[in-house]
């Protein structure tokens, strides 16, 4: 079973300095039909004006993933991390028993675009953690996050995995799935077809359940880039 979540149906908030689209209920946007999917709780598609950003604020008991699509994030947190996160790199912050951080557009001229994703952990409390890594832009599927950080992936406190899908030259790709697990696809670039006649455009998402394989077909000349969440 595949359910499409169209980009234009997402929640939307515009504060001038921040233009944000919410896949799931967040802030003032509330929809009981879209409260999350398995452990996946938030996908915010954010556009931040030059020099603007999120002032210091706190989180607790949440795994927070950021992926910059354009520009650079200037990050600072209460555990002493002062980092810049450029386009293409992944940042995973484990809030644990509590962390404070700020996120700003590092440029005073260019717009910042990034995805912020929240995963509910399976273990509460503990020491906050910070990980950041570039995984490149290889064709096919690249493993980004695993529960144990195997093979150089980022480690998360949850029974989930995140994969990066890129189709530049490939027209079709088939991925083996476990019918007992749930999957979520968020399309970043290009146009993509899934089974059952589901066509996706940038910003669209798709929930998949009870599937044994996922068939990806690129529909346009431009490359496809997507995130594939493997969830319990």
Question: How would you describe this structure to a colleague?
Answer:
- There is one protein chain.
- By secondary structure, the chain is an all-beta fold.
- The protein has no helices and 22 strands.
- It has strands at residues 2-5, 11-14, 18-22, 40-48, 53-59, 63-70, 72-77, 82-86, 89-94, 99-105, 112-119, 129-134, 140-146, 154-155, 160-167, 172-176, 182-189, 192-194, 198-200, 205-209, 213-218, 224-231.
- Strand 2 (11-14) and strand 3 form a beta hairpin.
- It starts with a strand and ends with a strand.
- 33% of the residues are buried.
List keywords for this structure.
single chain, 232 residues, mainly beta, seven-stranded mixed sheet, seven-stranded antiparallel sheet, 22 strands, globular
> What coarse outline follows from CA principal-axis ratios?
globular
Helical content (DSSP H or I, runs of 4+): under 10%
Low-confidence stretches: none
- Terminal residue distance: 16 Å
Q: Quick check: average pLDDT? A: 97
Task: Summarize the main sheet.
Answer: 7 strands, mixed
Number of strands: 22
User: Strands across the major sheet, in which order?
Assistant: 1-20-17-22-15-13-14
Strand content: over 45%
Evaluate the radius of gyration: 17 Å
Q: Briefly note the structural class of the backbone.
A: mainly beta
Separate helix tally: 0
H/E element sequence: EEEEEEEEEEEEEEEEEEEEEE
């Amino acid at each position: 079973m595949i359910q499409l979540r169209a980009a234009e149906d997402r929640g939307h908030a515009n504060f001038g300095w921040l233009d944000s689209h919410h896949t799931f209920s967040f802030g003032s946007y509330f929809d009981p039909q879209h409260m999350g999917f398995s452990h996946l709780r938030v996908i915010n598609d954010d556009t931040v004006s030059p020099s603007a950003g999120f002032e210091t604020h706190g989180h607790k008991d949440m795994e927070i993933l950021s992926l910059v699509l354009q520009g650079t994030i200037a990050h600072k947190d209460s555990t002493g991390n002062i980092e810049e996160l450029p386009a293409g790199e992944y940042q995973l912050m484990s809030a644990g028993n509590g962390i404070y951080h700020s996120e700003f557009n590092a440029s005073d001229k260019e717009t910042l675009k990034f995805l912020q994703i929240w995963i509910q952990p399976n273990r509460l409390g503990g020491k906050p953690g910070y990980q950041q890594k570039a995984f490149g832009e290889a064709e096919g599927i690249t493993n980004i996050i695993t529960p144990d950080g195997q093979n150089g992936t980022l480690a998360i406190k949850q029974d989930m995995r995140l994969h990066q899908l890129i189709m530049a030259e490939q027209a079709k790709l088939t991925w083996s799935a476990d019918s007992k697990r749930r999957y979520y696809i968020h399309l970043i670039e290009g146009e993509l077809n899934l089974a059952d006649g589901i066509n996706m455009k940038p910003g669209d998402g798709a929930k998949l359940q009870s599937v044994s394989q996922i068939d990806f077909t690129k529909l346009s000349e431009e490359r496809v880039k997507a995130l594939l969440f493997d969830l319990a």
